[in-house]
């Protein structure tokens, strides 16, 4: 009721895999593979969130500046162990609890820890490739907490080309019942070689946060959530350890901080 009806042929850059009505979890991956006749593989060595980071069409100068460790992580994510911390901020903590109670535990999606200790036993990270022949159509990053096996994220990583942008943008689709939440992010290579991803656009058609919904009859609706902004900065710290800071704001107020430490498996 608050979104706009969209023509899927004109907004293909926005659409992505949709979730089942009752639960997301891992079952949507098997359904997607079956529906599209794709071969599923999980955590094959040297597979990553992107087959080639230059699918985002970095300039030669940007690629020269971007830290090779960051490129390796995105192209060979399955080779990495990941540690994870989270912190809800101030007045938003009850909202996180409500989200967990009403939706996240039942749907097995976006199950962000309320207590930092929930992540103390580590994170299981799986890179799932859905392929047609030798070509990857979908890449799913499926992450669960070792302490309780809850799904933190089940997100489809790809890229898209909205009309008003000269180069492709990173696109992450989180399947939800009869639709999805989609985050579209610009990229910037900073002077120190770090990578900054941002979804801080202002209006429909720009990078940012979208909800989409379908009735499975070919009709689609979409809502741009201009109040939701997030930033992911991937960098090497002073000890040359690969890390990422993920910050989320709502109406300009920080409500969640996530931090990752990535280390190649021995």
Can you walk me through this structure?
29% of the residues are buried. The mean pLDDT is 89. Strands 1, 2, 3, 4, 5, 6, 7, 8, 9, 10, 11, 12, 13 and 14 form a 14-stranded antiparallel sheet that branches. The termini are far apart. 14% of the residues lie in helices and 42% in strands. The longest helix is centred in the middle third of the chain and has 15 residues, at 93-107. The protein has one domain. The chain is globular, with a radius of gyration of 18 Å. The chain is mainly beta and 266 residues long.
Taken together, the total number of domains comes to: 1
**Spans of at least 5 consecutive residues with low confidence:** none
Number-wise, the strands total 14
Rg (CA only) = 18 Å
**Treating each run of at least 4 consecutive H or I residues as one helix, how many helices?**
4
Largest beta-sheet characterization: 14 strands, antiparallel
| Residues in helix, % | 10-25%
Dominant shape: globular
Oligomer: single chain
Helix/strand-derived class? mainly beta
Q: Average pLDDT value?
A: 89
Roughly how many Å apart are the termini? 51 Å
Give the DSSP E fraction (strand runs of 2 or more residues).
35-45%
Order of helices and strands: EHEHHEHEEEEEEEEEEE
Summarize the structure.
The chain has helices spanning 27-35, 60-65, 68-75, 93-107; strands spanning 4-6, 39-42, 80-88, 123-132, 135-145, 151-160, 169-176, 179-189, 195-198, 208-214, 220-224, 228-236, 242-250, 253-264. By secondary structure, it is mainly beta.
